[in-house]
Specification:
The complex is a heterodimer of chains A (211) and B (353). Chain A is of the alpha+beta class. Chain A is built from 8 helices and 6 strands, in the order αααβαβααβαββαβ. A 3-stranded antiparallel sheet of chain B has the order 1-2-3. A two-stranded antiparallel sheet of chain B has the order 4-5. Classes of the chains: A alpha+beta (211), B mainly alpha (353).
């Protein structure tokens, strides 16, 4: 009798453990196996995409902290409006869609650091001091790129809205002849305020996320 | 008299649990409020959304923020109808995040499971992770698995849905309480951490209920306000994603198949808390001379342990349900510095219903 119960319990234990292990492995396969990572703009101070996906625990605290509400969780619902799809490992990671809301680098907020980088509990967003020179040096969300086919200033109508929107006006974005935007790669941090401001649709100036 | 006090403990515990859920719902709303104040948009929003769920929430938050110390809200020569965005941002920082990772009054706290999987996935230990681990780890070392019983929102939900089993019994439906091996959760923890390291993605956060709830409620509230900006007022559950189905599955499984299945046998976070709190000094202790062997505490224990045998080992989450259920005053919290308590044999006798 007692051997019978022991065997039953042993079988139960084996069954339960194997279900758990199989479930975890399947979940892991599903997370890492399917879907390429989509290029997207990460909040300021983020690690490289690969390291970011490994470090971020998807807690959403950077989104809470953002005074501009530009950081959103990368869910299917959010991504749908921007015609992209999160990769399997990117689900719920913080993402910025500059067209919808761009990073204003905590301008006009009384703080020593960029608030999202201060909120991050894991270091996926590196704590960044809020000073112009440090931001230019350390923040790299992407790089603005002008589509000369679309840009009004390249097509005979001077516009220059993106230049006015740039937080480093005269450095990252300068106005050339007929307000043509000229991007200085060494200054552009990829905040996306130019993309946000662009009056052309689809946007003539866009932030290309860092690799 | 003693009995009353013990019930107060349970009331306190449930208040903390409910407060956690309320805060989780409020944090994103307050974040939205701070954003609207900074954009100087709050008055028009409150007017446009008047009477709806979103409008009422904003109005309530606005009332609270206006009741804060005056010097803060009306400085810089602002008139009475204006709000100072700096003060709003400063005060809204008091509560941030959810049970997965939170900031309370400037103290950063992260679930040890989240920190662990982040560390193994990145294969590098950052200083911020360690800082945010200090408070939860110290609390766990002292009180054991109290996250499960006092903070975890899933714990509260499961305690409520556990009562549905009584309804099933009342309807004379057959209820099952299949017992699994408790070691499954350690397997989950180890397998999950290994998979995180191999895939370089912290995957346990996707199946860990407090993390799911924390994210889902954020999404729900943010979606509500996004919809309000598109003139779609009123409360809906549209913001929830299919991840909520994991929670629903756990709840249904616990009601119909196995009581507190997730917490007792599966939860990887619980496993980590158990391992951290294995030498905790605060434990439930049995006074054997007072015990009348009525089995009430065994029935009450949500973790399926047997307090009558004085075996409150690592699995106990210090919820105090056994103390509250005891009619003979035989159980109490006591400080014991790791001497006479037996650590082994956490499997309870099959007396429970």
């Amino acid at each position: 009798m007692s051997t019978h119960i022991k065997r039953r319990r042993f079988l139960k234990q084996v069954a339960a453990s194997s279900i758990a292990v199989a479930g975890a492995t399947a979940a892991g396969k599903w997370m890492g196996g399917s879907g390429e990572a989509t290029a997207c703009v990460r909040p300021p101070g983020s690690l490289s995409e690969e390291e970011f996906l490994a470090t971020c625990i998807r807690c959403g605290r950077c989104g809470d902290a953002c005074p501009n509400q530009c950081i959103q969780p990368f869910t299917e619902e959010v991504a749908l409006t921007h015609a992209v799809e999160p990769g399997a490992a990117q689900r719920n990671t913080p993402v910025i869609f500059p067209r919808q809301q761009a990073c204003m680098l905590c301008n006009d907020v009384e703080s020593d650091h960029l608030l999202c980088t201060e909120a991050c509990p894991t270091g996926a967003l590196q704590k960044t001091v809020k000073q112009v020179d440090i931001i230019i040096e350390e923040v790299d969300m992407g790089l603005a790129e002008v589509d000369e086919q679309l840009c009004y200033s390249y097509n005979g109508a001077s516009c220059g809205i993106c230049v006015r929107a740039c937080p480093f006006e005269g450095k990252a974005l300068t106005a050339g002849m007929w307000e043509k935007p000229i991007i200085d790669e060494s200054y552009c941090v990829g905040c996306g305020l130019c993309e946000r401001a662009c009056v052309r649709f689809p946007q003539a100036i866009r932030v290309v996320p860092k690799a | 008299m003693k009995k009353f006090e013990l019930h107060k403990l349970q009331w306190l515990r449930h208040s903390v649990q409910i407060m956690v859920i309320v805060l989780m719902l409020l944090v994103p709303a307050v974040s939205r409020y701070a954003n609207s104040v900074a954009a100087d948009d709050i008055d028009s929003q409150m007017k446009a959304w008047e009477g709806s769920f979103q409008g009422n929430t904003m109005a309530a938050i606005d009332t609270v923020f206006r009741a804060l110390p005056e010097g803060e809200m009306t400085r810089q020569g602002l008139t009475e109808s204006e709000r100072d965005p700096q003060a709003v941002i400063k005060y809204s920082r008091a509560f941030r995040g959810g049970p997965w990772s939170a900031e309370l009054f400037g103290v950063s706290m992260t679930d040890p499971l989240g920190a662990a999987e982040s560390i193994v996935a990145r294969k590098h230990v950052a200083k911020v992770v360690l800082i945010s681990l200090i408070v939860p780890v110290i609390l766990t070392l002292l009180f054991g698995r109290i996250f499960c019983s006092w903070i975890c929102p899933m714990g509260l939900i499961l305690e409520i849905t556990d009562r549905f089993r009584n309804v099933l019994k009342f309807l004379e439906l057959k209820t099952y309480n299949i017992r699994f091996t408790r070691n499954t959760k350690y397997a989950m923890l180890v397998v999950g951490l290994c998979a995180s390291a191999v895939l370089s993605v912290p995957i346990l956060g996707y199946v860990y209920p407090p993390a799911i709830i924390s994210r889902e409620l954020h999404d729900l509230i943010f979606t509500l306000f996004d919809r309000a900006e598109a003139k779609l007022l009123g409360f809906t559950f549209i913001g929830l994603t299919w991840m909520s189905l994991i929670l629903l599955g756990i709840i249904l499984f616990e009601v119909f198949v196995s009581r507190r299945w997730w917490c007792r046998y599966i939860c990887p976070g619980g496993a980590l808390y158990i391992l951290l709190g294995i030498k905790r000094p605060v434990r439930v202790q049995l006074n054997e001379s007072k015990c009348t062997h009525c089995v009430d505490c065994v029935v009450a224990c949500p973790m399926g342990l047997n307090p009558m045998k004085n075996e409150m080992g690592p699995e106990c989450d210090n919820c105090g349900e056994c103390i509250s259920s005891c009619h003979d005053d035989a159980l109490k919290f006591a400080l014991s510095l790791g001497t006479s308590i037996k650590e082994e044999s956490t499997e309870s006798v099959p007396v429970t219903k």
